Amino acid sequence: MSSSDSEPRTAPGPRGDFLLGSTLDFKESPLEFISYLHRAYGDVVRFRVGPSHWYLVSHPEDIWDMMVHRSKIFLKPAVARRLWEKFLGDGLLTVEGDRWKRLHSLMRPAFHKRRVNAYGTTMVDYTHRMVDGWEEGQSVDFNEAMVGLTLEVVAKTLFNADVRAGTGTVAQAMNTLNVEMLNHIHMPIPVPRWWPSERNRRKMAAIEDIEKIVRGVIAERRSSGEDHGDLLSMLVNARTEDGDGLTDTELRDQAMTLFFAGHETTAHAMTWTWYLLARHPAITERLRADIQEVTGSGRLTVEHLSQLPYLDQVIKESMRILPSVWVFMKEPTEDVVIRGFKIPKGSQIMISPFVTQHDPRWFPSPETFDPDRFSPERVKSIPTGAYVPFSGGGRVCIGKSFAMMEARLIIGSLVQRLQPSIPADYQPVKQAVLSMQPRDGLPTTVVHRAP
Fold it and tell me: What is the pLDDT of residues 380-414, one digit of tens each?
């Protein structure tokens, strides 16, 4: 972290409204607002949300310092933990310290490469099943389709459950949680969670819809005691060196966490990838030719992925230019100095992959979709901390390998079967809720490729 020998200064930023600060500007268009802050004020910006001062920190060195070198004092904010409490409980996303270490050690074996690779066939099979149900010329909301598909995948591979009939209910519940939880963040004086407001009732109903599925699967695993080859089977039987296992409540919290984190952000990431491929037909054809050369007339498999570096580059560049995870939040447990600016203990610090990954200092021509940025020759020029789609350090997303494999297998399989096609006049509106997604979905026309 950069600091100064002189007396720490107050970070620059907008004055905002006398009462609300920059709350309304941030709520109206979060991405545009924080991008403006970075351009106007630099790598450390101070602004007010209601009575609280928030900070936007955007330099790769400082991002990496918070995530890796001094991660013990930059924790998940208390407001975020309260926000997720009813939904995720004490899941891996929300806990800190020794509790996180215990949970992480119990869950890590389930994400071993061999275990994750075994899920690849299901991902590809479900993708082909979806495409088989689409007729030539049919109009499809690609984002809705991806949310449904990844929900089916995560339920089958992690819980060995078939929720195909309930995907609409769960997708609607997830959307409700996105909207209501973001409203909760933006409210200068949040409505208490116990207050019977319409918003709180919607939020609790959405949580119950998802929880009903999760609790049912947990109960079945407990009663049967069988290993179904899925994550939940492993968690039910997981033990520490002292023989300690997960309680029913802990199992519920981890299952809810994986149910949420295991599909929503990946679905939006693949939606943005499909949008970019539709806008860049030359890149799509290069990718299709690569896949054709490796797979011939067969289906894409996990074993093929190591022979398809360009597919990996396409996914990574998509997550750079249009990251579904557009922000991380940190809260220092003591006063800190970043680039000569004092940030008090307990402040809300925003780290935005969207902002940093659009900085021309780290990514020349940042608005250009250029998968070759991640070629072996060029990737070395990207500074550490400038590209963090899965966070970094010890708290890097435990499902990173699962998500990357899923994105490559699904996008690769779709490119084999379909020509990306969206309306010529379509302009996506980036909606930055809990993850970034196109506000009104992604309208797509089904165009099958010749076998």
Answer: 999 999 999 988 877 777 788 889 999 999 999 99
In sequence order, what DSSP letters do the residues of 219-256 get, joined into one string?
A: HHHHHH----SSHHHHHHH---TTS----HHHHHHHHH
Q: pLDDT tens-digit profile of 332-389?
A: 999 999 999 999 999 999 999 999 999 999 999 999 999 999 999 999 999 999 999 9
Q: Token digits for 28?
A: 């109206």
In 374-428, the DSSP E strands lie at none
Task: Please list, in sequence order, all residues whose beta carbon lies within 8 angstroms of the beta carbon of residue 123, skipping any fewer than 6 positions away.
Answer: 153, 157, 405, 406, 409, 410
Q: How many helices (H) and strands (E) does the chain have?
A: 17, 11
**Mean pLDDT confidence for 112-125:** 86
Please, how many CA atoms are within 13 Å of residue 238, restricted to the half-sphere of its CB? Answer: 23
- How far, in Å, CA of 292 to CA of 132, rounded? 19
Q: Where are the beta strands (DSSP E) in 78-227?
A: 139-141
State the Cα–Cα distance between residues 349 and 327, nearest whole angstrom: 10
Phi, psi of 336, deg, nearest 5: -135, 160
* CB contact at 8 A, 139 and 445: yes
Find tokens 């890796």 and name the residue.
68
> Contacts for 4-7 with beta carbons within 8 Å, 24 or more apart?
4/337, 4/339, 4/340, 6/340
Beta-carbon neighbour count of residue 390 at 10 Å?
18
Residue 85 in 3-state DSSP?
A: helix
Domains within the chain, CATH numbers bracketed: 23-445 (1.10.630.10)
Cβ–Cβ < 8 Å for 449, 137: no
- Cα gap 241→243, rounded to integer Å: 5
Cβ pair 394, 69 in contact under 8 A: no
C-beta separation of 402 from 111 below 8 A: yes
